[in-house]
From TrEMBL:
Pfam families: SUKH_6. It comes from Streptomyces pactum. SMART domains: SMI1_KNR4 (SM00860). Residues 16-149 form the Knr4/Smi1-like domain. It comes from the Bacteria. This is SMI1/KNR4 family protein. InterPro entries: Knr4/Smi1-like_dom (IPR018958), Knr4/Smi1-like_sf (IPR037883). Gene3D superfamilies: SMI1/KNR4-like (3.40.1580.10).
Amino acid sequence: MWVRRVIELTGWEPLGLSVDWPAIEGELGFPLPADYKELYEAFGGGTFSECVFFMGRDPGVSFDLLEVWRHSLAVERDGRYGDVSAVDPYAIYAPGGTGLVPWGATEWADQYFWLIDAERPGTYPILVRGDGGGPFERYEMSTAEFLYRVLADADFLPYGIARYGIEPAFEPPAGTGG
Protein backbone atom coordinates (compact mmCIF):
# COMPACT_ATOMS: atom_id res chain seq x y z
CA MET A 1 0.00 0.00 0.00
CA TRP A 2 2.72 2.54 0.97
CA VAL A 3 4.90 1.72 -2.03
CA ARG A 4 1.91 2.37 -4.31
CA ARG A 5 1.31 5.69 -2.52
CA VAL A 6 4.91 6.81 -3.12
CA ILE A 7 4.62 5.85 -6.79
CA GLU A 8 1.34 7.76 -7.17
CA LEU A 9 2.63 10.74 -5.21
CA THR A 10 5.65 11.15 -7.48
CA GLY A 11 3.92 10.24 -10.74
CA TRP A 12 6.72 7.76 -11.37
CA GLU A 13 6.42 4.93 -13.89
CA PRO A 14 7.78 1.84 -12.07
CA LEU A 15 10.94 0.46 -13.65
CA GLY A 16 10.38 -3.18 -12.72
CA LEU A 17 14.08 -3.72 -12.00
CA SER A 18 15.33 -7.27 -11.58
CA VAL A 19 17.60 -7.68 -8.57
CA ASP A 20 19.57 -10.60 -7.16
CA TRP A 21 18.22 -10.08 -3.63
CA PRO A 22 19.64 -13.36 -2.27
CA ALA A 23 23.18 -12.24 -3.15
CA ILE A 24 22.70 -8.81 -1.55
CA GLU A 25 21.02 -10.21 1.55
CA GLY A 26 23.69 -12.90 1.77
CA GLU A 27 26.42 -10.28 2.00
CA LEU A 28 24.48 -8.20 4.51
CA GLY A 29 23.55 -11.21 6.58
CA PHE A 30 19.88 -10.27 6.93
CA PRO A 31 16.78 -10.09 4.71
CA LEU A 32 15.99 -6.59 3.52
CA PRO A 33 12.53 -5.15 4.21
CA ALA A 34 10.04 -6.31 1.56
CA ASP A 35 8.75 -2.78 0.94
CA TYR A 36 12.30 -1.47 0.50
CA LYS A 37 12.83 -4.10 -2.21
CA GLU A 38 9.56 -3.04 -3.86
CA LEU A 39 10.64 0.63 -3.74
CA TYR A 40 13.99 -0.19 -5.29
CA GLU A 41 12.48 -2.35 -8.03
CA ALA A 42 10.12 0.53 -8.88
CA PHE A 43 12.54 3.47 -8.59
CA GLY A 44 16.13 2.31 -8.37
CA GLY A 45 18.39 4.50 -6.26
CA GLY A 46 18.12 8.25 -6.66
CA THR A 47 16.71 11.48 -5.28
CA PHE A 48 13.16 12.26 -4.23
CA SER A 49 12.06 15.88 -4.51
CA GLU A 50 15.63 17.05 -5.20
CA CYS A 51 16.62 16.57 -1.55
CA VAL A 52 15.87 13.07 -0.19
CA PHE A 53 18.45 10.47 -1.20
CA PHE A 54 17.31 6.84 -1.52
CA MET A 55 19.94 4.12 -1.73
CA GLY A 56 19.52 1.12 -3.98
CA ARG A 57 21.85 -1.35 -5.60
CA ASP A 58 23.67 0.64 -8.25
CA PRO A 59 27.39 -0.25 -8.10
CA GLY A 60 29.63 2.71 -8.76
CA VAL A 61 26.85 5.22 -8.07
CA SER A 62 26.65 7.29 -4.91
CA PHE A 63 23.23 5.80 -4.14
CA ASP A 64 24.50 2.22 -3.71
CA LEU A 65 23.27 0.65 -0.46
CA LEU A 66 25.98 -2.02 -0.27
CA GLU A 67 28.84 0.36 -1.05
CA VAL A 68 27.66 2.90 1.54
CA TRP A 69 27.21 0.13 4.13
CA ARG A 70 30.63 -1.41 3.33
CA HIS A 71 32.31 1.98 3.65
CA SER A 72 30.50 2.77 6.91
CA LEU A 73 31.46 -0.64 8.34
CA ALA A 74 35.11 -0.21 7.29
CA VAL A 75 35.27 3.19 8.99
CA GLU A 76 33.59 1.72 12.07
CA ARG A 77 36.19 -1.06 12.23
CA ASP A 78 39.16 1.26 11.66
CA GLY A 79 41.02 1.15 14.95
CA ARG A 80 42.81 4.47 14.48
CA TYR A 81 40.08 6.27 16.37
CA GLY A 82 39.56 3.77 19.17
CA ASP A 83 36.04 2.65 19.93
CA VAL A 84 34.40 5.83 18.65
CA SER A 85 31.36 5.23 16.45
CA ALA A 86 29.97 7.68 13.92
CA VAL A 87 26.51 6.46 14.95
CA ASP A 88 27.04 6.45 18.72
CA PRO A 89 25.35 5.12 20.85
CA TYR A 90 24.86 2.46 18.14
CA ALA A 91 27.31 0.79 15.80
CA ILE A 92 27.18 0.04 12.09
CA TYR A 93 25.65 -3.38 11.54
CA ALA A 94 28.08 -6.26 11.03
CA PRO A 95 26.67 -9.62 9.84
CA GLY A 96 25.28 -11.62 12.72
CA GLY A 97 25.14 -8.67 15.09
CA THR A 98 23.05 -5.64 15.90
CA GLY A 99 23.54 -2.20 14.39
CA LEU A 100 22.54 0.40 11.84
CA VAL A 101 22.36 0.13 8.06
CA PRO A 102 22.05 3.43 6.17
CA TRP A 103 19.35 3.49 3.47
CA GLY A 104 18.74 7.20 2.92
CA ALA A 105 19.70 10.77 3.71
CA THR A 106 18.82 14.35 2.84
CA GLU A 107 20.71 17.33 1.52
CA TRP A 108 20.34 18.79 5.02
CA ALA A 109 22.48 15.95 6.46
CA ASP A 110 19.55 14.01 7.94
CA GLN A 111 20.43 10.32 8.00
CA TYR A 112 18.01 7.37 7.71
CA PHE A 113 18.94 3.93 9.05
CA TRP A 114 17.37 0.59 9.80
CA LEU A 115 18.22 -0.85 13.21
CA ILE A 116 19.06 -4.45 12.38
CA ASP A 117 19.27 -7.22 14.95
CA ALA A 118 20.31 -10.60 13.50
CA GLU A 119 18.42 -12.25 16.37
CA ARG A 120 15.18 -10.56 15.23
CA PRO A 121 14.93 -10.95 11.43
CA GLY A 122 12.01 -9.12 9.89
CA THR A 123 12.08 -6.25 12.39
CA TYR A 124 13.22 -2.95 10.86
CA PRO A 125 12.74 0.07 13.10
CA ILE A 126 13.86 3.25 11.39
CA LEU A 127 16.29 5.48 13.22
CA VAL A 128 16.78 9.04 12.02
CA ARG A 129 19.37 11.55 13.04
CA GLY A 130 18.86 15.12 11.94
CA ASP A 131 21.46 17.61 10.77
CA GLY A 132 24.20 14.97 10.70
CA GLY A 133 24.36 14.67 14.48
CA GLY A 134 22.45 14.73 17.70
CA PRO A 135 20.14 12.09 19.14
CA PHE A 136 18.38 9.46 17.06
CA GLU A 137 14.62 9.34 16.72
CA ARG A 138 12.96 5.94 16.32
CA TYR A 139 10.02 5.23 14.00
CA GLU A 140 8.06 1.99 14.08
CA MET A 141 6.88 2.08 10.49
CA SER A 142 7.88 0.64 7.14
CA THR A 143 10.47 2.21 4.88
CA ALA A 144 7.82 3.16 2.33
CA GLU A 145 5.52 4.72 4.94
CA PHE A 146 8.40 6.75 6.38
CA LEU A 147 9.42 7.94 2.89
CA TYR A 148 5.82 8.82 2.01
CA ARG A 149 5.40 10.83 5.21
CA VAL A 150 8.67 12.69 4.59
CA LEU A 151 7.51 13.62 1.08
CA ALA A 152 3.79 14.25 1.62
CA ASP A 153 2.98 14.96 5.26
CA ALA A 154 3.60 18.59 6.22
CA ASP A 155 2.94 17.66 9.86
CA PHE A 156 5.62 14.92 9.91
CA LEU A 157 7.97 16.99 12.01
CA PRO A 158 10.80 17.60 11.90
CA TYR A 159 11.47 15.54 8.76
CA GLY A 160 8.48 16.21 6.48
CA ILE A 161 9.39 18.37 3.50
CA ALA A 162 5.85 19.01 2.22
CA ARG A 163 5.62 22.07 4.48
CA TYR A 164 8.24 23.72 2.25
CA GLY A 165 6.12 23.33 -0.88
CA ILE A 166 8.64 20.97 -2.52
CA GLU A 167 7.04 19.07 -5.40
CA PRO A 168 7.03 15.28 -4.90
CA ALA A 169 9.15 13.81 -7.68
CA PHE A 170 11.93 11.30 -8.30
CA GLU A 171 15.16 11.59 -10.26
CA PRO A 172 17.58 8.71 -10.87
CA PRO A 173 21.31 9.46 -10.71
CA ALA A 174 22.71 11.11 -13.84
CA GLY A 175 23.86 8.60 -16.42
CA THR A 176 21.82 5.65 -15.17
CA GLY A 177 19.07 5.92 -17.74
CA GLY A 178 16.32 5.43 -15.09
